[in-house]
């Protein structure tokens, strides 16, 4: 009996999508950009210990699929985080990125990294754009870190990079403070402000209200909006659609939803929804089959009741992640009792 052969290298020809002028859901907005956060967000599930082969397979899939950006990982401070305790993509050094993509990037897919406010030695670790293969620096900040984030955004902009900002844990920010935070951020050099569902607890009504509030500040300042969701309530895809309908043009997704805890909006779903003929689904499916799904033997991500519970209680998923790593991870009633008692 002949052994099964793997699928050939992903083809890049998919069925044609409708023209831009098509009406209703059959149309598409060519200005929408898709960012793959598989390695960065997924790295939170395995201490960023992806092999070169895994990262390269994701990169090759993104290039073939026409994905606009690939986020390689974090630019974390080596003074705060020890190299021996974390994988390569916690730090995303220039040499490591070049080892994956080569000194000359393919056309199409740009490369980004995320830099956490107050956790990045950005003056030293983020090189001038002319010395790097990176295209975009994404700054993540909690509301109390915004002054530090503003300095990081300016530094990256002055070095020649595209810049965006993710305001984290926005559901924990009092409405009276959110307006002031957004007013400050739209006056920065960041070109895009991201609505971030950090805890995966938002429903469409909350996404709608937040996007409209962000737009109130961003649109007059000429800024774009982005959306980054988590799937704790199985609404990552739906909430991403809601934000797109309301005008978000930068969209985060991960292959097979690979991301922290319950994961992110799945790339395969969002590319299918957008209808833009430049996006090709087959390379992503190939990567799922041969690269991402086999990882489930070692890494457990995706929707699970403990993640649902932290989501509906507006809690950081860390307690659920710790529980899922324990021997008693099937005892969801005990977990529920524990988190309720801790409210």
Task: Describe it.
The chain has 343 residues and is of the alpha/beta class. It folds into 2 domains: 28-297, TIM Barrel; 305-341, no CATH class. 37% of the residues lie in helices and 13% in strands. It contains 13 helices and 8 strands. It has helices spanning 38-42, 52-65, 94-101, 122-125, 146-158, 175-186, 204-218, 236-245, 267-274, 282-292, 305-312, 318-325, 332-341; strands at 33-36, 69-74, 110-116, 136-141, 162-167, 192-196, 224-228, 250-253. It has an 8-stranded parallel β-barrel with strand order 1-2-3-4-5-6-7-8, surrounded by 5 helices. β2, α3 and β3 form a beta-alpha-beta unit. α2 (52-65) runs antiparallel to α10 (282-292), α11 runs antiparallel to α12 and α11 (305-312) runs parallel beside α13. The longest helix has 15 residues, at 204-218. The relative contact order is 0.14. The model is unreliable at 1-6 and 8-22 (pLDDT under 50).
Multimeric organization: single chain
CATH class of the largest domain: Alpha Beta
SSE string: EHHEHEHEHEHEHEHEHHHHH
Q: Could you give the count of β-strands? A: 8
Shape: globular
Rounded Rg: 20 Å
The span between the termini is: 59 Å
> Could you say what the CATH architecture of the largest domain is?
Alpha-Beta Barrel
Mean pLDDT: 90
Outline the low-pLDDT stretches: 1-6, 8-22
Spatial arrangement of strands, main beta sheet: 1-2-3-4-5-6-7-8
What is shown here, in short?
By secondary structure, this protein is α/β, with parallel strands linked by helices. It has helices at 38-42, 52-65, 94-101, 122-125, 146-158, 175-186, 204-218, 236-245, 267-274, 282-292, 305-312, 318-325, 332-341, and strands at 33-36, 69-74, 110-116, 136-141, 162-167, 192-196, 224-228, 250-253. The chain has two domains: 28-297, Aldolase class I (TIM Barrel, Alpha-Beta Barrel); 305-341, no CATH class.
